[in-house]
Amino acid sequence: MMAKPAVRISVSMRVTFACVLAAACAMCAIAPAHARVKKIQITAKESPTFGGYSWPGVGQYEKIVGKAFGELDANDPKNAIIVDLQLAPRNAEGKVEYSFDFYILKPIDLSKGNHKMLYEPPNRGRKMIAALNRGVGGDDPGSVRDTSLLANSFLMPQGYSISFSGWDSSAGTSTAGFNTTITLPIARNPDGSSITGPSYEYIVNAGASYALTYPAATLDRSKASLTHRVHLNDIPHNVPASSWQYNADGTVIELLPEGTPFVANDIYEFSYTAKDPTVNGVGFAAVRDWNAWLRYETKDDSGTANPFAGEITRIYTEVSSQPGRFLNDFRYLGFNQAENGKQVFDGMMQWI
């Protein structure tokens, strides 16, 4: 039996969330899990958070922050759609490893909560929950201390738990300010050598330098092309190789002389041969397996307890912009069925 896809509803905020809640349904397990969150590391815990504010009938909340470590079976049919997963390195058990940051807000006493979770995949590492939650948000929502905002918030008075986790390589690698990242495997040729191929960057408002999505396979500037135009309908003009350069490891380009900024709002296009592609589709599985673990498991392989351990009966999503496209694909590509056969999300609200 296949799990049903989560319901997608895209109307106004105040009406939509109630509709999403009414649209939920759950499915039963049919098979053991093969891929999973193997381990979590809790790096910070604040109990209570929100400055100790307590919601009537729900009580105080706590914040749990850390990193989770997962693995995927590249031969499992549910993972087969992930591009280049077969080319990712394997551990001793033949699985593909990855890790990501997580951030949780939950009632300290879960018995007073509503046993439901709102999950948000961050937008390039940033949390966008403030609009839905009536101003209580930011990259560290638990740091909000304004009692008038907290009293008027949308989720906590109802007893919702809230979770965020890394899925997107464009979030970068810094976790400063609770930026939510993911560490993805790098695809390699069967002989272990770097995979190379054509890559393209569309550059607007870069400032003094521009970080490339993938490192350059060669620092030979004659093998790359940088063009510039002011308006979209203008003919692009080549920027001479003598007027730009790579940094030492081929991950950044800048104009010469050093410190010359890219002209704000102008359009630069960079074509080059890149190397070492990350297996970005692992982000789908990371979101699937994290939420399935929170919903269905009691502990990790090391015995660290699941902060929810059987308390979550429904999970809904809320997103703005780019993660909405991500969750559309998540649903369409079948990731809303966990590897244990159970449903992951019960309802989705996309603001795109």
Helix content: 10-25%
- Which strand-content bin applies to the residues? 25-35%
Number of strands: 17
Uncertain spans? 1-34
Number of helices: 4
Oligomerization state: single chain
The secondary-structure class comes to alpha+beta
Shape: globular
How would you characterize the largest beta sheet? 10 strands, mixed
On the 0 to 100 scale, the average pLDDT is 91
Tell me the distance between the termini. Answer: 31 Å
**Order of helices and strands, N to C?**
EHEEEEEHEEEEEEEEEHEHE
Calculate Rg over CA atoms: 22 Å
Task: Please tell me about this protein's structure.
This protein is an alpha+beta fold. 12% of the residues lie in helices and 28% in strands. It is built from four helices and 17 strands. Strands 1, 2, 3, 4, 5, 6, 7, 8, 16 and 17 form a ten-stranded mixed sheet that branches. A four-stranded antiparallel sheet has the order 9-15-11-12, with no helix packed on it. Strands 10-14-13 form a three-stranded antiparallel sheet, with no helix packed on it. The longest helix is centred in the last third of the chain and has 15 residues, at 282-296. The relative contact order is 0.21. Residues 1-34 have low confidence and may be disordered.
